Amino acid sequence: MGNLTQDTFNANVDSDPVSNVLKWILLITAIVSFAVVIWGTYKTYQQAPPLPQQFVTSSGQIVMTQDDIVSGKAGFQRADLMDYGSLYGMGSYFGEDYTAKYLVRLGRLTENEIARQRFGKPFSELAEGDQYVVRKNMQQSLQQIDLSSDHAILPEAISKSILQLQSEISQFLLKHDFEIGYTKAYSLDNQSALQTADFLIYSSLITIAHRPGTNFSYTNNWPYEPTMGNTPTPNTFYWTWISFCFVFFGFGAVLYIYHRYLSAPDNAPRTPVLLGFAPLTVSQRKVGQYFVIVALVLLAQIGVGSILAHYYTERTGFYGININAFLPFNFLRDVHIQTPIVWIVLSWISSAVFLAPIISKKEAKWQGVFVDLLFWVTLFVVVGAIVGDYLGIMGLVNDSWFWIGNQGLSYIQLGRLWQIGFCAGLFLWSFIIFRGMWPTWSRLKTATVEFWTGRIRLEHLFWASTINVAVLYCFGMIPLTGIEKSFTITDFWRWWVVHLWVEQSFEFFAACATAYLLMGTGLVSRLLAERAMLFETILIFLGGVIGTGHHWYWTGTPDIWVPLGSMFSFIEVLPLVLLIIDAIEHRQLIKRQGLFTYNLAYLYILGASFWNFVGAGVFGGGTLNAPLINYYEHGTFLTLNHAHTALFGAFGLLGIGLIYFCLRYAAGDRLPWSDRLGTWAFWLYNAGVVLWIALNFFPIGWSQLMDVYEHGYAHARSLEFYNTTLLWQWLRLPGDVVFAIGALLMSYDFIIKLHPFFPKFFNAQTEENSLEKAS
Fold first, then answer.
1. Are the C-beta atoms of 196 and 592 separated by less than 8 Å?
2. For 440-556, where are the E strands, in sequence order?
3. Amino acid 593: pLDDT
4. Beta 54-57 vs 62-65: how paired, if at all?
5. How high is the pLDDT of residue 405?
6. How far apart are CA 687 and CA 678, in angstroms?
7. How far is CA 216 from CA 139, 151, 230, in A?
8. Distance of alpha carbon 438 from its chain centroid, rounded?
9. Which site among 401, 512, 543, 707 is 20 to 30 Å from 54 CA-CA?
10. Which residues of the chain have pLDDT under 70?
11. Alpha helices, DSSP H only, in 280-323?
């Protein structure tokens, strides 16, 4: 920056017309996006599938009641069945999809009853013409069930079939079936199992019963089951075409704006505030313990993931060891999908805490105490959640399962007490960053005046991204003290965390962190960093907020989410295009600079940009979110392909890169540094992900998609289909091994680079080793 004063620098930033326009567009975009979602929330509550007081036969016999169905939903969550199979395609892809399976089973039982009533013999013995008539009658009978009535009247054939299905499901829930990898629901008894069966049957009914005044079901005719008359709606077709047109126009607009306004010659002064080294502050030293936990939790995730992958090939045990009885699949899945959230969030938390005093050039009072408090709160919540999760699944905390057990909702399984603790930790983290950014009253006053007068700095946005992460997580706790009656509403709020939290909050933080590191290491000016970050964040708000709608196509929400979700979820791809363009240009800057202090950190950050584009963009928003594709693809291995490549590739690699940045800064000029192990780990990680894609996710996912189209969704999720993919299931192993080696190398590299954080420990070890050599 030379002799340029801070006042001159600030004036330069304030005078940038592009940034000033982008700030206002971002504010308007944020307001409009959340306004649309609030309106959509009202419509979702208004048009969620109704729940009749009773399901009765024409003679008045009660088949199911509302109270039983609501209690059954609680039983479904308490037993964590969503982490063995899926509901509306949401959950685990290991077991079958309950809605599709029991919809088809109800159809077969019903047409058998109709055949006996009309022809006096089973459906299978009828002539082809008679089978056609019976099947059409079955479809129409189920489609015409009026769920909007307080007393839904069921035809005799359907009521008899439901009674038989209740018995089949309740018996299945209470027995081990290790041949299909199922461990019984320990937390259910005979009554709660029967109520859970009622809930599952009702959930299947809304996929075929038509909304009043329409010719499609509450789930827009999902799942695809041609024998049940479930086929795509016209909405699904034409919004797919419009979405593809929209996204290609969007590509052109983004590239034009980027090159016209954001990629102008970068002659603005640069502020390489992160290139100089300084002794670590107390809070920065405390961050080392977080890095240790990140490595341990990542290793735990990989270990559990390897066991899970094996379940697909050998469902009765693990290489001959019967672990199903004491380590059920749903518990292992809980651990596997919760641990990445833990270690990724911890990597971001610790890195932001580390960066704060470098940015402000001053340590806030008592900052180290708050960092320690956050660490122990986080550790307590993580350990408590895992233990409570296990106890809940094993039926050992039935009376308090909601609070300290497992909520049974995929990705937010934590009991409510642990959820509240995790949320409190996020707010504490945001408070720590707030104090770190503005450690004195005078700086806080200046920053506040700048913010309210529209002179919004990158520091304001960096902190705003942390409070955004904390606030949006809260929406996963609606209602706070109990369970929601409707699964549609429950899943609506679940996606506020699983998608909105990740695709908006996480992306917002990632954009801010990346922009600050680029600016702080002198690769780009603050001017260009803020322009690019603001533009990317505008697109992130559009795609990440309104785009959440693509998760609500088939869950019983109103069909307004088909156009909104398809149009705006495609926008998710556009900021990812910018990320990959940025990555290429910044890599060129690093190469031209020659000797660069943070090569290893930026290797991971560039890798994150690549996988964000490929995993989240190409394998996600760019392909799977189109309604017509999603209709058939939803809940297949292609979704697993998207989830693994996006979560680890986009956010995991960024978290590791941020940690390596902190480790390199801590080493400074005083300690030796080598990129070798970290580089090896990076390429092994990427090789492992590529092997997963090539040998497991894509071959299985593609054949599964074809099976959905040919035989229906229920068959594509059945053991009959999975047994045809055993070779590809075994071929998951090479990728697992390569990936695990990378994690071990990285963990070892972390440990040997932690000297500056634990000087007393490492010095003691050094002295001990010296004494051993001397003796």
1. no
2. none
3. 66
4. antiparallel
5. 92
6. 14
7. 12, 21, 8
8. 32
9. 401
10. 1-15, 263-271, 575-577, 579-580, 583, 593-594, 761-775
11. 282-286, 288-311
DSSP three-state, residue 480? coil
Q: What is the pLDDT of residue 478?
A: 92
Could you tell me the pTM of the whole model? 0.91
- The C-alpha atoms of residue 434 and residue 431 are separated, in whole angstroms, by 5
Give alpha helix (H) positions in 361-414: 367-393, 401-404
Q: Are 476 and 419 in contact (CB under 8 A)?
A: yes
What's the burial of 205, exposed, middle or buried (CB within 10 Å: 0-12/13-18/19+)? buried
Q: Cα–Cα–Cα angle for 641, 532, 245, nearest 5°? A: 55
Q: What's the distance, CA 76 to chain centroid? A: 21
Q: What angle do CA 588, 591, 595 make, to 5 degrees?
A: 150
Q: What angle do CA 287, 291, 294 make, to 5 degrees?
A: 135
| Cα distance between residue 548 and residue 745, in whole Å | 37
641 to 231, 554, 614, 704, 716: CA distances (angstroms): 25, 20, 11, 13, 17
Q: For residues 40 and 476, what is the distance between their CA atoms, to the nearest angstrom?
A: 17
Written as one string, the DSSP assignment of 652-709 is: IHHHHHHHHHHHHHHHTTTS----HHHHHHHHHHHHHHHHHIIIIIHHHHHHHHHHHH
Q: Which two tokens stand for residue 633?
A: 């693809």
pLDDT of residue 456: 79
How far does CA 91 lie from the centroid of its chain? Answer: 11
Q: Are 106 and 165 in contact (CB under 8 A)?
A: yes
724 φ/ψ angles, rounded to the nearest 5 degrees: -85, -5
Within 258-366, residue ranges assigned H as helices are 282-286, 288-311, 329-360
Q: What is the pLDDT of residue 761?
A: 65
Query: In this structure, which amino acid lies at residue 216?
Result: F
Q: What is the pLDDT of residue 687?
A: 96
Selection from 639, 493, 462 nearest residue 557 by Cα? 493
User: What phi, psi does 4 have (nearest 5°)?
Assistant: -65, 125
Looking up tokens 């398809």 gives: 566
- For the chain, give percent helix, strand, coil, nearest 5: 70, 5, 25
Cite the beta strand spans of 405-497 per DSSP E: none
Q: Residue 764 contacts by C-beta under 8 Å, 6 or more apart in sequence? A: none
Q: Are strands 151-154 and 54-57 parallel, antiparallel or unpaired?
A: parallel
- Cα–Cα distance, 339 to 489 (Å, whole number): 26
